[in-house]
Amino acid sequence: MTFPTFISTQTEPRARGKELGTHRRKEIAANFAGYTDLFAVAGAAPGQVRAWGEQALDRGAAWAPHLADEIAGIAAGAGLEPWQVAVVNARTEILAAIDAVGEGECSTSVVLPGAGAPPRTVQTWDWHDHLRDAPMLWELEPRPGHVVRTFTEAGALAKIGISGAGLGVHFNILRHDSDSADPGVPVHLIARRILDEAATVEEAADIARSATVSASTVITAVTATEAASIEISPAGVAVIPPEPGGVLLHCNHFLDPALAVGERHATERPGTYVRFQHLREHVEGLADDDLTTRAHAMLSHGPDQAPVCAHPDPQEPINQRWETLATIGLDLPAGRLRVHQGGPCQVTEATWQTF
């Protein structure tokens, strides 16, 4: 099983968006419908979702007009309204506005081995199982000669990815007391601008600091020689460097001491701490130069062990059914993503998709 791929030929934002929307019309509409169902189960009325989507689009347009143009193009190609595509891009902000929470979520590992060896990265991407058909791989060229490849959801401008500047990003959701129901710049747009514009961790952090946000996330930026987890919240942005030995781990709780005071996710769903401890205990495997070995080092199932590899309980409502939908590594020297559809328990050497 592999994820669908799309390679843009258009370079102007609105035209690029329309091209994507036209070719992925069915998938984008289905993704919007899936999020509409998720927000309804979590307690949001359709009119409120539309208002949040429109506000997120306005905030995103003020911060990055060209990305708002791309969203408008996607909508035109997919036969949707711009606010509907904005809802897909602002799903983190809408979930924060609803104050939704769940047990699942992602685990990320980056190891910088030094001595000229490339970074060893891997993450799990957990999300709701009724949205398992949403992911896609997208290649685009935001400016001449600068190629971006991203694992994202149909209609979303970016998520996990790598750029021709030699910078890659991993992506985990966070929750903070300062998160609000007043949507700001969508964090998925921040990830996209980092991939489009940044060549260093410092530049990535500066882009994050320039956005006024309403929801929290962590974007782990990696280059050939450096890495940092950029924790983003309405209360501020913190940059977490690797530990001694070049080890940088992140799950779904804040590591910055000041921001951790306002931690929300882990206070209600402490499994993130158990997952983090599992990563710590398996650093040797996570530092291996073989991606399959790194993925297997992540393998752990709840409830008896850390729930790094998630499988949904069909008896739960859709907002509480979590599944590890992808396992992903960054191949920085090649400028490629390596993606497995599913969790670490299903990874073999033959199941990697190189993009």
Secondary-structure blueprint:
Layout: E1 5-7, H1 13-23, H2 25-41, H3 46-63, H4 65-78, H5 82-89, H6 91-98, E2 107-111, E3 120-128, E4 135-143, E5 146-153, E6 160-163, E7 168-173, H7 187-197, H8 201-209, E8 217-222, E9 227-233, E10 236-240, E11 247-250, H9 257-260, H10 265-268, H11 271-281, H12 283-286, H13 291-297, E12 322-331, E13 336-341, E14 353-354
GO molecular function, one term: acyltransferase activity
Domain Peptidase C45 hydrolase: 122-339
Biased composition (Polar residues): 1-12
Short description:
The protein has 355 residues and is of the alpha+beta class. The protein has 13 helices and 14 strands. The strands form two sheets. An eight-stranded mixed sheet has the order 1-4-5-6-7-8-9-10, covered by helices on one side. A six-stranded antiparallel sheet has the order 11-2-3-12-13-14.
Q: Would you kindly provide a written description of the structure presented here, covering whatever features stand out?
A:
By secondary structure, this protein is α+β, with helices and mostly antiparallel strands. The protein has two domains: 5-98, no CATH class; 107-354, 4-Layer Sandwich (Penicillin V Acylase, Chain A). The protein has helices at 13-23, 25-41, 46-63, 65-78, 82-89, 91-98, 187-197, 201-209, 257-260, 265-268, 271-281, 283-286, 291-297; strands at 5-7, 107-111, 120-128, 135-143, 146-153, 160-163, 168-173, 217-222, 227-233, 236-240, 247-250, 322-331, 336-341, 353-354. The longest helix has 18 residues, at 46-63. Helix 2 packs across helix 5, helix 3 (46-63) packs across helix 4 and helix 3 (46-63) crosses helix 5. The chain starts with a strand and ends with a strand. InterPro entries: C45_proenzyme-like, Peptidase_C45, Peptidase_C45_hydrolase. Residues 122-339 form the Peptidase C45 hydrolase domain. Residues 1-12 have a biased composition (Polar residues). This is C45 family autoproteolytic acyltransferase/hydrolase.
